[in-house]
Design a protein that fits this description.
The structure holds three protein chains of three kinds. Chain A has a domain of 141 residues: P-loop containing nucleotide triphosphate hydrolases (Rossmann fold), CATH 3.40.50.300. Chain A contains nine helices and ten strands. In chain A, helix 3 packs across helix 4, helix 3 packs parallel to helix 5 and helix 4 packs across helix 5. By secondary structure, chain A is of the alpha/beta class. In chain A, strands 6-7-8-3-9-10 form a six-stranded mixed beta sheet, sandwiched between helices. Chain A has a four-stranded antiparallel beta sheet with strand order 2-1-4-5, covered by helices on one side. Chain B is mainly α. A two-stranded antiparallel sheet of chain B has the order 1-2. In chain B, helix 8 packs across helix 9. The N terminus of chain B is likely disordered. In chain C, strands 1-2 form a two-stranded antiparallel ribbon. In chain C, strand 1 and strand 2 form a beta hairpin. In chain C, helix 2 runs parallel beside helix 4, helix 2 packs across helix 9 and helix 9 packs across helix 11. In chain C, 50% of the residues are buried. The chains are: A alpha/beta, B mainly alpha, C mainly alpha. Chains A and B meet through helix 2, helix 3 and helix 5 of A and helix 8, helix 9 and helix 10 of B.
Chain lengths: 249, 331, 307
């Protein structure tokens, strides 16, 4: 039985009287692909933000790889191996595709207070960056300005950047958001390949992708997990059906 | 920071044939031209040109240091002149105390500016946007008001410097030609230093943070310490300009660090082309030339310059570098 | 003790003037995200309009009305010609363009009125002094100024918290895009906010004219103080601007008066006379730094605390 790489214990977050995250407890097991689904307004983005460190929970504890990270900043968690891709693409538009990934590689290596050597001539950095681009299929776009990529390509670049930080856990916030059918299929293929080597926590609306990728699914409704289990079980779960389809389920 | 769509879309398709070489042509031309100025002055029998260009180069050093944090770091500091003033006052105060040795005075001036930048930067850089602009302005004003109340060192009226900085007992800066080439050397060194910083891993963090701070945090980099270091480096470079300025004018006054001066520095950077480093040199030259020409036309030259500035901001994105090379600047 | 009472009142007076200038500025920053460095010249324009109109019509209060109208016109002219093109631009562009406006207007005023400081006569009804205590005579005009300023503060508070426009302004300060998305004519809201701010600044300048010297660049130093007020108070917040303005006014005035004496308690008199004024001038900036250290977005920020 795999251990939990991420443990959420009684996580709570409210904005005024609105409880967006309500005593949420969840374990993400090492090596699995875990998807979080739920109707709109369930609090998925708020949850991801708390896990990644963008938002501070009001109570509760987050343990990552055996370490209490509740008080750590986003950058600190990233250095510990918690990588995140964003729902709204945040690539660096003025850098080339290669440099976007190279910066992540540089961040991983931790030697950024270097002033003398020109980073563009750092072959090691570029090589490693290119490897990650190959995994997501963007190697031929390496020298293009990132701002010029198509939406789907930017999503792939986000993935490559996350991979370059050599993460222990990949936090993917709606990776298929806004991508067309072909691009979605391509991304799913890439993610399926990566699933063999990486633990992933995936927030997604695209059900086909979720069912294709996930080992386990958790359903989030009104800030609480109402069900966790294998895809087949979730599909037939009474509570889940009610949440999505209303009482007539 | 987003670019305006007007001018940039026009040249969106154009890319220079060999970017690296082309990128070097303009800076090389600038430095060659500068180096030849004394010769030109002799030919034209006009020593004023040399003096004027020394002043241009001094402000160019200050402007280049500002471009480092403004153009590459997107830190809109409206208090950069404070470092110019601190550098100048370092020389001024020590000379009032009878200390003229460059090996003492210059490090003191630079370190003083660095410390001021460290303390004020540590606080300012925790803020962003509008706050940052106003806080840097306020801190510079604080330095300004402090110097006006230093009655022992001239206060509001300023302080005259009776002897220029000396090295090993000799006064090389007394000779105009030597002063010119010392300043030229400093400008060249500063330019190369900033070029190197910008191309390094450190520079990449800075320019990355400018585009998306959250992206950097997500890969594990907190931009704050990098920005602080850049801020301190820029301050010390600007203080060097202050040292040279004090020597050239043989005078220091609180006006050196007034916010009008800070505004002028920003104008120089933007006029020349923000985010190019050599643009700041061109911008300094253009600004001082414009100021000099307009002052000849009318005592009320700011009546013309004000609207000119507004027009440049509204319609002249990319600055003079853009005009000359047709290439969109980094910023 | 008398000195303290006088300086306390002077501090309140400065605070009130600062509030009038800062209130408009903080809204413009907060609602429109527009860094308007030229707000200080609006204050200066108000003072020069006082000179102009009191010279023309004689009656102080009539001149005030005329000056307010003129200040509004000038402000809106600047808005239409220049500022409105800057709302979408980044802060750097706004800083530079408004800097150009400052240079122009400072020089224009120098051309039209000369560089020498001018003065405006106090209105008859408000001249003279009032006995406060122990034979302490304090100018009626200054008391009136304080009262008027406080009155405007109350009026603004009522406007902002109890009217529909005020609610829109507060909403705009918190999230302008949202307000626009809700179908509110954000352009018109901007103009109203801007016009109001301009009039407040001009009003402050007019009121200050009889007691301060009217000269080119008088708005610049006040602007810096207004910035400090806004930073301490929190951008977009009228309440913040009020409390911060009073605090800054008091600290600066009392500090300048008593710092040398306080310094004399801990060091020799000669050092104290040197160090005293220097420290006094730094006081509000140290205060600002201290506030920012604990609250990087000020005491009452409109946008609330971010994680």
């Amino acid at each position: 039985m795999a251990d939990a790489i991420l443990r959420l214990e009684r996580l709570s977050k409210h904005f005024g009287a609105l409880r967006v995250t309500n005593e949420l407890s969840l374990d993400i097991l090492r090596g699995e692909v875990h998807a979080i689904i739920g109707p709109n307004g369930a609090g998925k983005t708020t949850l991801i933000s708390q896990i990644s460190g963008a938002l501070k929970p009001d109570h509760g504890r987050i343990t990552f790889d055996g370490r209490d990270v509740t008080g750590l900043s986003m950058a600190q968690r990233a250095r510990l191996g918690l990588a995140r891709s964003f729902q709204i693409t945040t690539v660096l538009p003025d850098f080339t595709v290669l440099d976007n990934v190279a910066l992540a590689v540089q961040a991983r290596q931790g030697h950024s207070f270097r002033f003398i050597k020109a980073v563009a001539r750092d072959i090691g950095l570029s090589k490693r960056a290119l490897q990650h681009l190959e995994i997501v299929g963007l190697a031929d776009r390496a020298h293009m300005q990132a701002g010029r990529l198509s939406h789907g390509e930017k999503r792939s670049l986000e993935l490559a950047i996350a991979l370059a930080t050599e993460p222990k856990l990949l936090l993917l916030d709606e990776p298929m958001a806004g991508t067309g059918k072909e691009e979605t299929e391509r991304l799913v293929t890439v993610l399926k390949r990566l699933a063999a080597d990486y633990t992933m926590l995936l927030v997604e609306h695209d059900m086909a992708a979720v069912f294709a990728l996930a080992d386990r699914i958790s359903v989030l409704v009104y800030g609480e997990v109402i069900a966790t289990g294998a895809p087949a079980d979730i599909r037939t779960n009474e509570k889940v059906r009610k949440a999505y389809l209303g009482e007539e389920a | 920071m987003s670019d305006t769509p007007t001018l940039t879309t026009a040249s969106a398709g154009r890319t220079p044939a060999s970017p690296r070489l082309l990128g070097l042509r303009l800076p090389i031309a600038i430095f060659v031209l500068l180096a030849l100025v004394p010769a030109l002055a002799t030919v034209l029998d006009d020593s004023f040109i040399t003096l004027f260009v020394i002043r241009v180069m001094i402000f160019a050093i200050a402007a280049v240091s500002l471009d480092l944090i403004l153009g590459y770091g997107a830190l809109v500091s409206f208090g950069h002149a404070a470092f110019l003033g601190i550098g100048a006052y370092g020389i001024g105060i020590l000379s009032a105390e009878g200390i003229y040795d460059g090996l003492v005075a210059i490090p003191v001036a630079l370190v003083a500016a660095g410390l001021f930048a460290l303390v004020t930067g540590a606080i300012s850089l925790k803020t962003r946007g509008v706050y940052f602009i106003m806080i840097t302005l306020a801190f510079a004003q604080m330095a300004y008001y402090t110097t006006t109340s230093l009655s022992a060192y001239g206060g509001d009226d300023g302080l005259t410097i009776w002897r220029r900085t000396e090295f090993f007992g000799t006064g090389p800066l007394d000779d105009r030609l030597t002063f010119f080439y010392v300043t030229f050397g400093c400008l060249l060194a500063v330019y190369l230093l900033c070029r190197m910083i910008v191309a390094s891993r450190f520079g990449r963090v800075l320019t990355g943070a400018k585009q998306s701070e959250i992206r950097l945090r997500a890969i594990g980099i907190d931009p704050y310490p990098y920005r602080l270091v850049a801020y301190v480096i820029a301050a010390m470079i600007c203080a060097l300009a202050g040292v040279l300025l004090a020597n050239q004018t043989e005078f220091v006054s609180p006006a050196y660090m007034g916010w009008h001066r800070s505004g002028e520095l920003i104008v120089m950077v933007v006029l020349g082309g923000i985010g190019t480093l050599h643009g700041a040199i061109i911008g300094a030259a253009a600004y001082l030339l414009l100021e000099s020409l307009l002052q000849d036309v009318t005592h009320h030259w700011q009546l013309i310059f004000g609207p000119f500035l507004v027009l440049v901001v509204l319609y002249g994105k990319g600055g003079l570098v853009r005009l000359i090379t047709g290439v969109r600047a980094h910023g | 003790m008398m000195l303290f009472a006088v300086q306390l009142l002077n501090g309140l007076q400065l605070g009130v003037l600062l509030f009038l200038v800062a209130a408009g500025l903080t809204l413009v920053f907060g609602v429109m995200d527009f860094v308007n460095l030229a707000h200080g010249v609006q204050y200066m324009v108000g003072a020069y309009l006082a000179v102009l109109f009191t010279g023309l019509v004689g009656n102080f209060f009539l001149a005030l009305l005329l000056a307010m109208a003129a200040a509004l016109v000038i402000g809106l002219l600047l808005e239409v010609l220049i500022y409105r093109h800057l709302y979408e631009r980044d802060h750097l562009d706004q800083v530079l363009a408004t800097f150009g406006v400052i240079l122009f207007l400072n020089e224009a005023v120098r051309v039209l009125f000369g560089s020498a400081p001018l003065s405006v006569a106090m209105p008859e009804t408000l001249s003279g002094g009032v006995v406060l205590m122990n034979g302490l005579l304090y100018p009626v005009y200054r008391i009136a100024l304080i009262l008027v300023g406080l009155g405007v503060a109350v009026l603004l508070w009522v406007l902002v918290t109890r009217t529909r426009i005020g609610m829109l302004v507060r909403a705009g300060a918190t999230n302008a895009q949202m307000v626009s998305a809700l179908g509110i004519n954000i352009r018109r809201l901007f103009m109203i906010v801007f016009g109001f701010g301009v009039m407040l600044a001009g009003f402050a300048g007019f009121l200050a004219a009889p007691i301060l010297s009217v000269e080119p660049g008088m708005g610049d130093s006040l602007l810096i103080l207004a910035f400090v007020v806004i930073v301490i108070g929190g951008i977009g917040s009228i309440r913040g601007a009020f409390f911060a303005a009073i605090i800054v006014g008091l600290v600066d005035t009392l500090g300048r008066t008593f710092m040398t004496d306080i310094a004399k308690l801990v060091m020799s008199p000669s050092t104290a006379t040197d160090v005293g004024p220097a420290v006094a001038s730094m006081l509000i900036y140290v205060l600002m730094a201290a506030v920012l250290f604990f609250r990087p977005t000020g005491l009452f920020p409109a946008k609330g605390q971010q994680a």
